[in-house]
Specification:
Layout (H helix, E strand, L loop, with lengths): L6 E8 L2 E7 L8 E10 L2 H9 L1 E2 L2 E2 L4 E2 L3 E9 L11 E4 L2 E2 L5 H4 L10 E2 L12 E5 L3 E3 L6 H20 L6 E5 L3 H12 L4 E4 L11 H12 L5 E4 L4 H10 L5 E4 L11 H6 L3 E4 L7 H9 L9 E6 L3 H9 L5 E5 L8
């Protein structure tokens, strides 16, 4: 264990004010575990809280530890924890229901209005040396799954949840809009779930100044048909419009990216062609699925990590992410182990 005060954390105080500071090492409750953090990815939302101090209705009012894409090692368990022990390597699901409400009862706990979620105001995240979390939402990693793969389960889960909601299946033709980390995990998952062809903007389709209709035409030309499924990962109005125009009649458009509250879309075009528009909010019930896929080597997420920084250089890591360099920037929180 570290000495008191040796819990370095990345804390946003307000828009534009990001600091490295020491926090007390927390004590786990009866159903919690204390973790020595290992790998934590930087998400676009972390950068957004740093730059703007809020996302929608979630406003940073008090200093908040960032980070929610994470893995670590159990160092202490609460009195009621039986499935984990010190030394276990785990991946952390950041969303923990606070009560057994109607959404939890139906298995859609991600929609619970009172859910705890790492690095969403007012809840602290886990970009720190030591962090405590509900033991039920810490998942043991098999020996052949690395800490970084464990941390990548969080963005991977967005892809799993989105592709499930979209109904991707054997032979699906899929259009993914946006090639950031979330767009890329949707490509990985769609192909794993049996998609016959996947096109993605900025890779297979370059979008410059085309109208949404022209983008849709490009997608159809490249696929040889209109896709049954579109997964929109940007939140940009023009991209949502292109997603509606591109999707085959009777198909499904899933909105993953979050943009402004109000967007103008060709809703009548979608309605008369029976294009189903579905939203997703984070994910639920995805960690066991993701761990099984990683352990069986059915998918490979390792190439997504393009930059690594020690926790002490977190500010530099955030600047790198803000500049849009690489794909996934990973922070290494354990000063004694910077391995993947």
């Amino acid at each position: 264990m570290a000495a008191p005060g040796q819990n370095l954390a990345v804390v946003v105080h307000r828009a534009g004010d990001l600091r490295l500071e020491n926090r007390p090492i927390p004590e786990p409750g009866p159903n919690e575990v204390l973790l020595r953090m290992h790998s934590v990815g930087i998400c676009g939302s972390d950068v957004h809280y740093w730059q703007h101090g809020q996302i929608g209705d979630f406003v940073v009012k008090d200093p908040m530890v960032l980070g929610h894409e994470a893995s670590g090692t159990v160092v202490k368990v609460g009195s009621g924890v039986t499935h984990l022990k010190p030394g276990d390597r785990v991946a952390i699901e950041p969303g923990v229901p606070r009560e057994m409400d109607e959404f939890c009862k139906t298995g859609r706990y991600n929609l619970s209005p009172t859910i705890f979620f790492c690095a969403t105001p007012p809840d602290d995240g886990n970009l720190c040396r030591y962090y405590k979390h509900s033991a039920s939402y810490c998942y043991k990693l098999p020996d052949n799954v690395t800490f970084e793969e464990g941390a990548l389960i969080e963005p991977l889960s967005v892809g799993i949840h989105a592709c499930k909601r979209a109904g991707v299946t054997l032979g699906s033709k899929v259009f993914v809009s946006g090639s950031g980390p979330i767009g890329l995990v949707n490509v990985i998952v769609a192909k794993m779930m049996g998609a016959a062809a996947v096109v993605i903007t900025d890779f297979t389709i370059q979008v410059k100044n085309e109208t949404p209709q022209e983008v849709a035409s490009k997608v159809e030309s490249l696929l040889g048909c209109m896709p049954e499924i579109t997964v929109e990962c940007t939140g940009v109005q023009a991209c949502i419009q292109a997603g509606i125009y591109a999707t085959r009649s009777g198909g499904t458009l899933v909105l993953v990216g979050l943009g402004p509250d109000m967007v103008t879309v060709p809703i009548v075009n979608a309605a008369v062609r029976e294009v189903d528009i579905r939203g997703i909010f984070r994910y639920c019930n995805t960690w066991p699925v993701a761990i099984a896929l990683l352990a069986s080597k059915r998918i490979n997420v390792k190439p997504l990590v393009t930059h690594r920084f020690p926790l002490e250089k977190a500010l530099e890591a955030f600047e790198t992410t803000k500049r849009g360099e690489g794909v996934k920037v990973m922070l290494k929180c354990d000063p004694t182990d910077h391995n993947p």
